[in-house]
Amino acid sequence: MSVEVLLDEKIIKERIKQLAKEIENYYKDKTETLHAICVLKGSIHFFSELMLNLNMHVNYSFVHVSSYAGTESTGRIRVKSWVDEPLQDKYVLVVEDIVDTGNTLRYILNYLKKYRPADLKVATLVEKEKYQHGIPIDFVGFKVQDVFLIGYGLDYEEKYRNLPYIGYLKNT
Ligand SMILES: O=P(O)(O)OC[C@H]1O[C@H](OP(=O)(O)OP(=O)(O)O)[C@H](O)[C@@H]1O
Ligand SMILES: Nc1nc2[nH]cnc2c(=O)[nH]1
């Protein structure tokens, strides 16, 4: 197996800089601190790089949810840890690494809405093109073809998260 690079480190970092500008622009008239929620584990690198590029006050929260076995969604979302601060009337940004079937994001948003935030937005580094999941995603880094991705936080059986680029496995 070899890794075929789809998005290299430079392209990823440039796009994240642009996304940070789009996000700053959206929140520019809001006086409240932004509550950014990192969806672990996959979002770790995207979240970190995005936050380092955001020129505004941000409060960090982390949730840990998982639903994949190998390359397939089990359709069952397992919550391993959840936000523990009040989000009512807050400006909340969910930060995902990838939206694929949309199951994970739908689950997270449904729960977060119950906290009655003032505003609830989503940023994802990658969105798979194939699905019509119907969830509005406010800030999208890249739309990609339907191939199982690894790297930059994305794993295959817990490996490859620490690759500095995004790619896919190829039989050689
Ligand atoms: O749109 P979906 O089909 O639901 O897929 C997206 C989710 O899949 C991955 O999480 P995973 O369950 O692999 O957990 P991990 O982040 O800990 O790797 C990824 O980080 C997203 O949260
Ligand atoms: N690693 C990885 N996790 C995912 N979760 C949903 N889609 C993907 C994918 O393409 N790669």
TrEMBL record:
Compartments where located: Cytoplasm
Top EC class, one word = transferase
Q: Which UniProt keywords apply?
A: Cytoplasm, Glycosyltransferase, Magnesium, Metal-binding, Nucleotide-binding, Purine salvage, Transferase
GO cellular component terms, alphabetically, are:
cytosol
Q: Does the keyword Glycosyltransferase apply?
A: yes
Q: Which Gene3D superfamilies match?
A: 3.40.50.2020
Catalytic activity reads: IMP + diphosphate = hypoxanthine + 5-phospho-alpha-D-ribose 1-diphosphate; GMP + diphosphate = guanine + 5-phospho-alpha-D-ribose 1-diphosphate
Phosphoribosyltransferase domain: which residues? 3-156
Q: Which Pfam families match?
A: Pribosyltran (PF00156)
* Cofactor(s) required for function per UniProt: Mg(2+)
**What protein am I looking at?**
Hypoxanthine phosphoribosyltransferase
Organism, by scientific name, is Pseudothermotoga hypogea DSM 11164 = NBRC 106472
